[in-house]
Write a structure and sequence with these properties.
The chain is 32% helix and 22% strand. The chain is an alpha/beta fold. It has one domain (10-18, 47-101, 121-315): UDP-N-acetylmuramoyl-L-alanine:D-glutamate ligase (3-Layer(aba) Sandwich), CATH 3.40.1190.20. The protein has an 8-stranded mixed sheet with strand order 4-1-9-10-11-12-13-14, with helices on both faces. A 4-stranded mixed sheet has the order 3-2-7-8. The protein has a two-stranded parallel ribbon with strand order 5-6. The longest helix is centred in the C-terminal third of the chain and has 16 residues, at 279-294. 49% of the residues are buried.
Length: 324
């Protein structure tokens, strides 16, 4: 593992939730009995708070390492082959016999909302032991994504991992899923080792009970988080750092599917910061990544490469900036 001031093997390592999404749109109802309705699209994609993010990072030109768990089943084979198809290194992915690969069925509504049926599976048995740290933390950015659906990693294992990442000189980013107040009890000690915390405002509120983004950010700063970036859907994002706070508007787009928008935001932020961009420009780029994904079906929709995403950032109109 590279120490502070030394080079790393990877640009980014994404540790946590990797799953398959089976998505269909537009779904307005579940047919009665054994009947069938006809829809326009069905897709099968690799997703998850780590999986979606690492694919977007790879699309945006980063040398990427996937760190998660899959089962020894057809879904696990699909996850691994898809990641490899995007150029992601999968050698650190755990394979578990007798366990299903995590998977979701999402019925995407015409407005882009996507109620979900989820099998937790291998994500619950993922555990990164300290002897694996030199391998999985050999990256400039370490993204921890998916706490809330990481049974064995939630709590002390996540704190220890992020502490080791900071000791190794990594930049840490953190996102989660299915946030609840009890999850905050498990993760509060880990927050002192987080450089960039990237929840949605709904997740942040569920964790800390504060719905105003300024108050929510202050709560996480008090726990030790350096920079909070709260994604706010159609209202854009709110960013709070030691240098001050600002909000950015969302792009004005036709929303197809909101699956993976937060993961794309994380991937875009990491890619922009890796290029040395300042925080406001990086957050603007991240917002564009989220918008591109929202414009298509699946968590891997919209983003092609770095240059075309920059062009989209500069040309897609934005909504009025929200007032706080």
């Amino acid at each position: 593992m590279s120490g502070p001031g030394k080079s790393f093997r990877y640009d980014v390592s994404a540790i946590g939730l990797y799953c398959i999404d089976v998505q269909g749109r537009p779904v307005t109802r579940i047919p009665d009995g054994g009947n069938a309705d006809f829809i326009e699209q069905i897709r099968l994609t690799v997703a998850g708070t780590a999986g979606g993010t690492i694919i977007d990072c790879a699309k945006l030109g980063l040398h990427a390492l996937a760190v998660g768990a899959v089962g020894e089943d057809e879904k696990g084979r699909f996850v691994l082959s898809t990641l490899e198809g995007f150029g992601v290194d999968t050698h650190a992915m755990q394979r578990h016999e007798g366990v299903h690969t995590a998977a979701s069925i999402l019925a995407v509504r015409p407005n882009g909302e996507r109620p979900c049926l989820h099998v937790r599976g291998a994500s619950d048995v993922l555990l990164i032991e300290p002897d694996a740290y030199p391998e999985v933390l050999d990256a400039t950015f370490v993204h921890m994504g998916g706490n809330g659906l990481l049974g064995r990693m939630d709590g002390e294992p996540t704190r220890a991992l992020l502490h080791a990442a900071k000791a190794a000189g990594c930049i840490t980013t953190f996102d989660l899923i299915f946030a609840t107040a009890p999850l905050m009890d498990k993760l509060s000690a880990a927050m002192a080792h987080v450089d960039y915390f990237i929840p949605s405002i709904e997740e942040a509120t569920a964790l800390c009970g504060r719905s105003d983004p300024r108050d929510a950010a202050r709560y996480f700063h008090d726990l030790g988080v350096t920079t909070c970036l709260l994604t706010m859907g159609g209202d854009g994002c709110y960013v709070s750092s030691p240098d001050g706070a600002f909000s950015l508007p969302a792009h004005d787009i036709a929303v197809v599917d909101t699956t993976g928008c937060g993961d794309a935001f994380s991937g875009g932020l990491i890619a922009a910061l890796h290029r040395g961009w300042d925080l406001e420009r990086a957050a603007r780029f991240a917002t564009t990544c989220g918008a591109l994904v929202a414009g298509g079906l699946g968590s891997d929709a919209g983003i092609v490469d770095f240059d075309s995403t920059v062009a989209a950032m500069e040309t897609i109109p934005t909504k009025p900036r929200m007032s706080l």
